Amino acid sequence: MTMNNVGRPTAPVIPGAAAAASTFTGNQGLAIEEPLLFEVGRPDASGVDFDDVDAFESRLGGLGRTAPVDLPGLTEPETMRHYVRLSRQNYAIDLGLYPLGSCTMKHNPRLNEAMARLPGFGDVHPLQPLSTVSGAVELIAELGRWLLELAGMASVAMSPKAGAHGEMCGMATIKAAIVDRGEARDVVLVPESAHGTNPASAAQLGFRVVGVPARADGTVDPEEVRKRLGPDVAAIMLTNPNTCGLFERDIVEIAEAVHAAGAYFYADGANFNAIVGKVRPGDLGVDAMHINLHKTFSTPHGGGGPGAGPVVLSDRLAPYAPVPFVRFDKDGTAEFVETRKAAGERELKPFGRITAFHGQMGMFVRALAYMLSHGADGLKQASEDAVLAANYVKARLKDVMSVAFPERPAMHEVLFDDHFLEGTGVTTLDFAKAMIDEGFHPMTMYFPLVVHGALLIEPTESESKASLDQFIGTLRHLAEKARAGDVAAFKAAPHLAPRRRVDETLAARQPKLVYQG
Amino acid sequence: MRYLPLSDTDRADMLSAIGVASIDDLFADLPAEKRLAMLPKLPPHASEQAVARRLGTMAAKNTPAGSVPFFIGAGAYRHHVPATVDHLIQRSEFLTSYTPYQPEIAQGTLQVLFEFQTQVARLTGMEVANASMYDGSTGLAEAVLMAHRVTKRDKAVLSGGVHPHYRGVVETVTRFPGHTVESLPPDLSGTEDILAAIDETTSCVVVQSPSFYGHLYDLRPVAEKAHAVGALLIAVFTEVVSLGLIEPPGAQGADIVVGEGQSLGNPLSFGGPYVGLFATRQKYVRQMPGRLCGETVDADGRRSFVLTLSTREQHIRREKATSNICTNAGLCSLAFSIHLTLLGGAGLTKLARLNHANAVKLADALAALPGVELLNRTFFNEFALRLPKNASVLVETLAARGILAGVPASRLEPNRPELENVLVVAATEVNTDDDRAALTAALKEALA
User: Fold this and answer.
1) Per DSSP, which regions of A356-436 are E strands?
2) Does domain A378-500 fall into CATH 3.90.1150.10?
3) How far apart are alpha carbons A339 and A322 in whole angstroms?
4) pLDDT digit string (tens) for A87-100?
5) CA distance A379 to chain B (A)
6) Domain boundary residue, one of B305, B339, B373
7) Which among A7, A56, A348, A365 could disulfide-bond with A343, CB atoms 3.0 to 4.6 Å apart, if both were Cys?
8) Crossing angle, helix B330-367 and helix B107-124, to 10 degrees?
């Protein structure tokens, strides 16, 4: 007897038919639609069992509920399916390259998750007696030490909960220092390439924002800064590397001019991943900088948070950092200072408190695990690989796409404009949506605002060369396809995602923010 | 290095494709005299085992809440989180995705946000909710700033029952733009007269219920007075489980409701990350800070979700944005939402009842000790005691005996000597009869 070595067919019988199939359920094989919780849940269903409660005398003082809680529940198996099905409609870094410029979507090591879940970190309360949490204080101190060493700064405020919160913290520190000097400086200079949170954070603290234009090569001209400096200027907020993916090569000159005018230098550390271990912001004249642990130090983005944005500070600003903080004695012993009273007794002048407790401890554990794993050599290598990857993408695409600032080396991200799409009828948005069909998350689009139809690509150090080559090949293919005049395919993209193009205008015109039944 | 896929051969090939001789050529714009050769004070890379050992040693120096009789609350609460929650939030597609800026490949995150917003709105008795804030305290600060925008006034009145740290955050963010905060003194008895502090210059009145000291407040008269003078009522809670049993703030006339959602789905984690809940009336939606998810359709007419009303936000409005907040508490709001889905409305009420019952039993047992005074006529799962001795000293004494008894009020209010003997004690469903007996016996002995 001979074995049947042909077996079942492994290719579709009719090529291309699979995607178009219409089904009874609306599902497409493994792509399963999931209704809203409010359509499948029941008010009395629950996935949690409780012991009965003996009768007791309530102490609610007549303020008890007059109506039952109007929320559906699901049993455990239904809950599992609801969320697993939803999860499968998401792109993720664990699925593929996620080249969102300025977002640093790098690999999230699972050791870090395990460490954050150790009961000694995950199951300790922020107000336990300090004698029972010495290891938690030690962890915060150790992470702080790494951040200070990498940034070349004097002090760190650990409590900011995200990048923008860090901006607010750093700018409040600057404001406190200025008030302490008896001055009323109220202007903050912000280059036009800055992320929108920079001017928003400054404005929230009562500063007036004055823009600084970029020069033709995408960087800030020290002369333009000098023109705007004066006795009313409190600070400059500069992102370096900037949002065009370029290193501000006149940064030392800018810092000197800012300091000479009596102002402070705030750096947005969103793009720190390009320079870790290569240069220290403190050595460049920076007075305050937030560090996005969720970017540079790989704490997971989690679909939009939680972030963590500790702020490193120069000597001049250190006394004004908010409570709580860890302070080191001369012999190196860490001391946890929780209140303004305690800080005052140590002759410090914290500007206040910016969150209830000590900051994003869960993110601190993950970030320190990442740093210890990489070590000094690995962190430097990671930055070099990130910069190498961006420049490789730039080099391999420069003949088919338009590099916005081709003259300077890119840092960890490379900016293209839409010049290469001119006359094709395809827009940056269409181009990005076509990438989705090819299995990629699009790059950051239409940001920064300094070039037309921006496409900002940040591949990170987490990609293999094969992965980069596939990505490059895809973009080359799409650029050529756009030029070949296949506009309709772009306009209708994506075709193969869980959703076709989503109507954002309708959502904003008639906001439906909750389920109405 | 296990996290870096490029080999030296890859690197050489890539440099050659770029057309430079060495990696340093790509860093040519960094000032030469400032460039680092190496970071001498930091150790080299380490194996997974070595890192786990190092961090494990640090973790082992702490006393986990679950290892001892534990009664600490004051803004963060230990609850049992079903195992399903932590499993689901570690799905790669939730854990390692970014903010859902490309809705076609982020419907999972977006639908979760829409469901979260609906859950929060219904739970608080409000019309709309946002996709979450950093935590309860920053949420409150944003609520006060929002009230200033809505009323075009700048004086907030804060009840003495507001968590001292929350008050601190409000004072910080309002001080810089020159706004005024009038904070009533700590309301130990739950009987303050906040109505007297409200007038035509008031932008908003902030009342926390259950309060920092555990008292429940009737918000209706406060809402009435606030509305009569054109001010908003902001209701705050730090224990979201209380809403399973207590009349929601929306039904009592609150205009903005903010709170800490950590209790559902999220571990204590030494203070963060947590999840701020923020809900308001439909008419104020365009003044609301934070990210919002809305329902729409795709090109095929299928129901879809997308981030919306972004014209309020910084990337469009820059310095004119309603707030500088860019992220939400994504994964923590997912954990909250899953836990609440597992509970359902009926389950949440059962959980709340169990908490209340445990707190009542504990309060009665402790109040029966000689010299111990229960300061609360009303409470949910947390209450304040006046002890015959310094509360900080007693807490340390009991900690040394392996019992985490509560939070001395003076730790958060160091400038108020009158609070030195006040202890804030919380009880949740995790406490057993044995835990309560251990605390009662130990406190009795320590006071003897």
Assistant:
1) 402-403, 414-417
2) yes
3) 9
4) 999 999 999 999 99
5) 9
6) B339
7) A348
8) 30
